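Before we proceed, please read the two lines closing this message. Tell me what the token row says about the fold.
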Amino acid sequence: MALKDNWYYYEVSLKNPEPLIDENYISDTVSVRDEEFIRKVERLRDLITAYCVMVEKDSDAAAKILDEIYGIITGVGNIQYTEFVAFWKVLDLSYSLFRKLSDRKGMLEALVREYCGRRRSLYDRMGYSNVVVQALYDSGVSRKKGQVGTNKLLSLILRTLGKVPHIMDITSPMASPTGYFLPDGGDENTFEEFRKALGIRYEFGRGHQGKEPDLVLKSGKHFFIIEAKHVKEAGGAQDKQVLEVIEFIRYSEDRDDVHYVSFMDGLYFNNFILHKDDNSKPGRQRRDIERYLKGNKGNFFVNTAGFEALLEDLREMLTSKI
């Protein structure tokens, strides 16, 4: 048995839309059940209230309070999911940027003073609720999902192909029937060894600021270099992701056993089903995908269903040789 034409897996994808809810991307952590964390949050609120009162009356006492606030802000995990840190965005400052500042203490003092003047009395009148903490945590979940797409790929691979070893050293496991490594997840040296061993140019990386692929899968004599994107809707960074995953299959190698695979899941993929011949953005993107697939017969553009079909054929190819 041989792999089917790349158009077959593409059409499987088009016939099987992505679901509205994908279990792989559900994150249902309830932060408010962490009693120690909630104690720290409540302590932070009390300290800020005390600072707002003392800052004009006793500078020494206010300085000690600020020290304790600083300890909580810099030492407690998930503290960014509080109304105080959420307020920082009003001032055009993010928690991640704050962590990189050299004078965090000085900046924190300015932030607390601004909060005292702009929010503290308002929140005191309205009351505080730890539901806010959970809501802020939930709203930040999408930013934690960079690795989830790769984990989903691995789950599909292991479920279909069985035990697939994680290749750490490219020299000895190359003879193994299957294997994988994660160039964009810590295995960049393995990817470099792989490129040199097979004479792979990987021109996509040179044109995209050295971007490494998410996963490389070895199955029999075939190697699949995979870029994965979870795209929900158009706009902003999502548009850049769509462009990248389409551009990925524009490249190819001078070998029949090396394949570039673009994997896209999420609701945005369904736009390619709805927009076939029109001049909308998804319609134009679909035509680019199809042009690259026709020009590079060894490459694949798939969603979840298409990738599952590809893996199933790889499984049959492996078992037919046993």
Summary: Residues 31-141 form one domain. The longest helix spans residues 104-126. The chain has a mean pLDDT of 91. The first strand starts at residue 178 and ends at 181.
